[in-house]
Amino acid sequence: MKALVVIDMLNDFVTGKIANPRSERIIPTIRDLLERARSDRGEWLVVYANDAHLPQDFELAVWGEHAMAGTPGAEIIPELAAARGDFVLPKRTYSSFHETGLDPLLRQFGVDTVVLTGQHTNICLRHTTADAFFRGYRVVVPRDAVEAVTEEDHESGLRYLETIYKAELPYTKELLD
Ligand code: ZN
Predict the structure, then answer these.
(1) CA–CA distance from 99 to each of 9, 35, 89, 90 (Å)?
(2) Would the pTM count as exceeding 0.85?
């Protein structure tokens, strides 16, 4: 059983307060992966891990206010909207596992492999991959379904995931074949 995890593809992260124009190029690949996963619910769980910050969350000292819970900025971009049967988990810091209930959810469904998508390669992807690795999950990061703010951050982020956590870094196409 696999879980497709979509991280921080939210209005504030794509076009809003901390907009990343580079994130627009991964929308089609994530959409393809969502379509595949939803067409095979017996093999795939679809999970969104979304920033939903409260005032004075520690991370706001670094980034300023973004994706504040309950605001339009914290909503998933319309192109990748959640569907019936998907799980949407709010988070208040970088890792999708940190106090979100993701780990018990994955275990309830017998998930052993997580396919991580979204942004940013060198921040939330990195911390989420670390936590998945610590918990014994196989980690797959489709390299064209994640992005960072710069090419250097993206490339060095991918190298770190591969070197330190043995993350697999296929192209999305290879996962859809
Ligand atoms: Zn945040």
Answers:
(1) 19, 28, 10, 9
(2) yes
Between the CA of 16 and the centroid of ligand 1 the distance, in Å, is: 13
Distance from C-alpha of 161 to C-alpha of 158, rounded to nearest angstrom = 5
Q: Which residues contact 155 (CB under 8 A, 6 or more apart)?
A: none
Cα 76–151–125 angle (5° rounding)? 45
Structural domains in the chain, sorted by start: 2-176 (3.40.50.850)
Whether the pLDDT of residue 140 is over 90: the answer is yes
DSSP 110: T
- Kindly give the distance from the C-alpha atom of residue 148 to the centroid of ligand 1, in angstroms, as a whole number: 14
Give residue 92 CA to ligand 1 midpoint distance, Å.
Answer: 6
CA of 101 to the centre of ligand 1 (A): 17
pLDDT of 73 > 90? The answer is yes
State the chain's mean pLDDT as an integer: 97
pLDDT tens-place string over residues 76-95: 999 999 999 999 999 999 99
